[in-house]
Amino acid sequence: MPVPWFLLSLALGRSPMVLSLERLVGPQDTARCSPGLSCHLWDGDVLCLPGSIVSAPGPVLVPTRLQTELVLRCYQETDCDLCVRVAIHLAVHGHWEEPKGEEKFGGAADPELEESRNAFLQAQVVLSFQAYPTARCVLLEVQVPAALVQPGQSVGSVVFDCFEAALGAEVRIWSYTQPRYQKELNLTQHLPDCKGLEVRDSIQSCWALPWLNVSADGDDVHLVLDVSEDQRFGLSLYWNQVQGPTKPWWHRNLTGPQTITLNHTDLFPCLCIQFLFQVWPLEPDSVRTSICPFREDPRAHRNLWRAARLQLLPPRGWRLDAPCSLPAEATLCWQAPGGGPCQSLVPPLPPANVTVNKALELPLLNVHPNLCVQQVSSWEKLQLQECLWVDSLGPLKDDMLLVETRDPHNNRSLCALEPSGCTPLLSRASTRAARLGEQLLQDLQSGQCLQLWDDDLRALWACPMDKYVHQRWALVWLACLLFVAVLFLLFLFRKDQVKGWLRLLKEDIRAGRKSATRGRAALLLYSAEDSGFERLVSALASALCQLPLRVAVDLWSRRELSAQGPLAWFHAQRRQTLQEGGVVVLLFSPGAVVLCREWLQDGASTPAPQGPHDAFAASLSCVLPDFLQGRAPGRYVGAYFDGLLHSDAVPALFRSVPVFSLPSQLPGFLGTLQEPGDPRPGLLRERARLVSQALQPALDQLLKAPGDPGDPEDGTRDGT
Fold first, then answer.
1. Minimal CA–CA distance to 585: which of 662, 507, 493?
2. pLDDT score, position 260
3. Of 387, 392, 601, 626, nearest in space to 525 by CA
4. Are 533 and 585 within 8 A, CB to CB?
């Protein structure tokens, strides 16, 4: 039985107050201004083009504050719409040019300067209004006598009547001048609904509004609409984004009571519901009302964070992709090799720059594989971290990061960033940086360190530590040489016994090499089409585990996959596999081929995962760039199953790596997975025979099943 989650009506407003609204008669927009100002409203709407900020040529009028008030725009006594009145407060920005030369000392005044001070200050003020699905921009011309104002002084306000909006909608208003002399003002407001309006009898949409009951039943969320049997309405689900336009997701034209079922993974804080009602059957006009019921839902915020993807862009850019605006803070951090937390660096990235779905620049002079970007959510302190420069610049380096601090007198101090904190150079601390302080300072002065970031007060330097590691091991090498000399003398005096010992040592080394081969990592990626195909993949993975391979597949990691999300799980497995010298195996099926073609046709858009555990769909955004940029050979291997797919059905992009048909080409497939020189040819054929015996029953069962995916009409071959 569904458990009630929360009960709300579309007549439920954000404010418990009951508002009595002023009525405006007629559809005409108007503008009026406070005493001392004159204003004019342009006919019709204008294009919303803020442009870049320019320097003011002198005193100019600029908007300083926005205020809103709700009113009713009425066409008849009982036919009114909710409308937003906007008041723009103005002030003088900039200064008059001061007189030069003898005019400063009582000389004759400049006639042009006097004329400009006796003229009018004029401004073209733009008001931009957005409320899904409406967007408008209007232009107001305002002027005031220049002689009556002083720089920085407030000169009054202009009132615009009015922007029509839907009941319960979220509206956003911007104001700026043309040309633009400062950052635009902005205001976001949630409008009340019928329950919060004293004059609801005058708004026809309030007569037909349904009750909306939102309840949860396991993983499903039910939207239950209680309306009359003959009530016709349109229902839209959309993402209401603060940054950028709204994104429609789902729309239906419905009649009478309805129950809409959503999966809990579809919930996001910006997911809103809009109702479009036809109040009178004979009239084409409709009224809209909107509600966003998931803004504070914990599951919606968790889904948003799991769907977010942080990526670093060459040469020094980064971008956060997410369905909604993400309240988060971004920082640069330094990731030392060997694990441990990523240490935050100064400067942090300004919160104003955390804009979703937009490429941003990092304040860096040079990039380094140890530099990462962290994204920390203000909701439950979740975290994203990406060090994607590792793919282009190589693995993490054992470099020492030096932090240089300067005071206003240009005095410098240096410290080295270590796990325990920032250790001052030339200190007596028992850390590696303190012991090598003088050498690091000499490296910095001789230009051997790479400067990563610099401003007036701080700088960051990365100094290589390889040569000091070599010096540290010099005594170890000397000891090894002495040990070899002793062994040589022992060999001379006891030749026969030493030969037997060397023979045993050689066998131990050979056995150790075989043991190491058994540990090579292989990550299997596939598209989960049905249970039969999953059994076939499981049979292949189990058979490969009996060989010198360590196999990772999402079938055996469902708990981690659900906790981390498909993209995060795949990214961690891929990084670990490639760092250990392993290989990623792409198992192609009809569904996987379709996903790849959709990704290639749509360009940079990422295909949506086909299920909560579908790592293949989630991994395409990371796998395909490796093929497009030529990094796939040596890292990836392709395979498909006999009877399920044509050999030429594999997209051409993936043929840059070996692609095998299983089980007919198992020897070549296993030989590619093994490290060079491991098994002898006879042993490799025996292993292929064992894997084929384990694989063939599951493949035969899948090919004989009703609705076989190997049907030729689906673009695959019949296995003959």
1. 662
2. 83
3. 626
4. no
Segment holding 541, helix H or strand E: helix 531-545
In 3-state terms the chain splits into helix, strand, coil percentages (rounded to 5) of 30, 35, 35
Q: How far apart are CA 533 and CA 39, in angstroms?
A: 71
Q: Bridge partners of 403?
A: 415, 460
Q: Give the whole-angstrom CA distance, residue 210 versus residue 215.
A: 16
pLDDT at 24: 87
Listed residue (163, 194, 208) closest to 13, CA to CA: 194
Low-confidence ranges of the chain (pLDDT < 50): 1-18, 101-108, 279-285, 352, 501, 504, 507-508, 511-512, 514-517, 604, 609, 612-613, 708-720
Q: What 3 state SS string does 271-304 have?
A: EEEEEEECCCCCCCCCEEEEECCCCCCHHHHHHH
**Which letter, b or e, does each residue of 324-342 get, where b requires 16 or more Cβ atoms within 10 Å of its Cβ?**
bbbebebbbbbbbeeeeeb
Per the structure block, which two tokens stand in for 454? 């610099």
- How far apart are the C-alpha atoms of 587 and 616, rounded to whole Å? 9
Other C-beta atoms within 10 Å of 413: how many? 11
Dihedral angle computed from the Cα positions of residues 161, 167, 169 and 175, in that order, rounded to the nearest 10 degrees: 0
User: Which residue segments constitute the domains of the chain, with CATH numbers given?
Assistant: 23-94+120-200 (2.60.40.2160), 208-299 (2.60.40), 307-465 (no CATH), 521-703 (3.40.50.11530)
pLDDT of residue 110: 57
| pLDDT of the residue at 381 | 60
